[in-house]
Structure formats: C-alpha cells, structure tokens
Amino acid sequence: MLCEIAGITRAAYYKWLKRTPSARELQNEEIIQEMKAIHEKVEGIYGYRRMMMTINRKLGQKFNHKRYYRLMKVAGIQSVIRQKKKRYKHSTPQHVAENVLNREFSAEKPNEKWVTDVTEFKYGLSKKAYLSAIRDLYDGSIVSYVLGHSNNNNLVFKTLDKATKLLEKDQHPLLHSDRGFQYTSRGFKRKIDKAEIKQSMSRVGRCIDNGPMESFWGTLKCEKYYLHKYETFEELSKAIDEYIYFYNHNRYQKRLNGLSPVEYRAKAA
After folding, report:
1. Phi and psi at residue 234, in whole multiples of 5°?
2. DSSP assignment of 171-236
3. pTM (2 decimals)?
4. Which helix (H) or strand (E) holds 266?
5. Dmax (CA) of the chain
6. Of 23, 51, 119, 254, which has the fewest CB atoms closer than 10 Å, so is most exposed?
7. CA atoms lying within 13 Å on the CB side of residue 162
C-alpha cells in the first residue's frame, strides 16, 4: 500500500532496501558525524565555512564549501545568529588625532597596525563589566585585553601597557581607536608618545572606521557571551579568557589560509 501511495514498484523498493551505500554516501555520513560533534563542542558558533576548514584539516581533505553547506542543511545544523548593536557616546576630547588608518585594514607584518576599543557586558541581575582589547590587523589576533568593573582610563591604560611590553625595540605600531574619552585624554596621549606609537582616530559617529574591532566584539558576543548566563564577574572573566585563547589559537580563518591567528603570526616570524 505504501509503495502504491509513493508511486513506486515493490521491486524498486526492495532493490533500494538491499543496496550497498556508495563511497560518497559513506563519506557524507562521516562528515555529518564530524559536524555534529564539532557543532556541540563549539556550542553552535561555526557556520559552513569554518566547519569546512576545521573538518578538511582534520580529515586531510579539500571538500568545497558547497558540500558542507548542503550537508549542514541535511543534518539540521545551523550556526548561531549574530545580533549587532552600535552606539556612539558623545565626549569632550582633550586631544584628537586624524583618521590616519583611513579604513586601510590590512597590514604587511605583525605589530604594524593595531585597533582598540571598549565594550560592555552584563552579569548577575544588573551588574556591568567592561572589556578593553587591542587587535593586530596583520592576523586579527588579540594582542592584549583587560576586563574591569568600570569603564575608565585605568582600564584602557592597562591594556596599552600590556601590549607595549610585547613590542620589540624597532616596532612602533599605528594605534587606531574611536573618540572615546579614554583615547582623547592627555594621559593616553602621553603613554603612546612614550612608546613612540602613532595615534589614529575614527571620525565622529563612524563606527565603520574601526570596523575590525567592532567585528571582533560581535564575534565574541555571538559565539560566547549570548550563549550563556553569567551570575558572577569571575564566571564572565573565565568565559572571556577561554574564548580569546580559542580565538587566537584554534579558530581557523579563511583569510589566513585556514590557519589560526597564532599559527599565521608564527609563519611571519
């Protein structure tokens, strides 16, 4: 009766039932099993491109992105969806720099161009924490970061101090930020002058001028922060430490030829 409803012969059904799966079908099953395991391990943050880089690397294959896209749909695997929010706070600057970076977001060597910013997180019932970070445009790695209870000068100054300690004597990167009060303060200007760092700032209200840093905040929040509830500052701090280590060491990127930022940076060295 079911064969009649489906419009097929009984012979065709039994032939299908007893058939041996092809090599490609078996291969697809293996890929799907790997995808399910990785999807669970990374809490659903991988889309088909990053899934492709990870599994191809593990299996030593070169399957294309279309195959992974199709198999993820077949398996019902979907990455988490990013929510973007952009805000601009007006401040009275003590010092303003030109937009020297001018959206030239590529760099030819490590520690040539840095971008920096501060973002907000919430934990517990209504408490807030603030993360300051510096990102290298050469490989996209997070050079330094500090999580604090207050969005103040000290938070940004500590982040800069941690980054400058990693520089060689002949390295004097361009540092780009928005026009937040920390970056336009005289104290910050004294610190970058001492390190012989050239300063660059976004134009008023132009978030895209600091696009790579905004992009990282979106990735961090989408792939880690939005997936959990954090009751304490310590829980939030641990989660951020884990994610930034993962981002620098284990998150493979297509623009880095399938390498992680640390691997790509090591090749340059």
Report:
1. -65, -40
2. ---EEEE---TTTTSHHHHHHHHHTTPEEEEPPTT-GGGGHHHHHHHHHHHHHTGGGS---SHHHH
3. 0.75
4. helix 261-268
5. 84
6. 23
7. 17
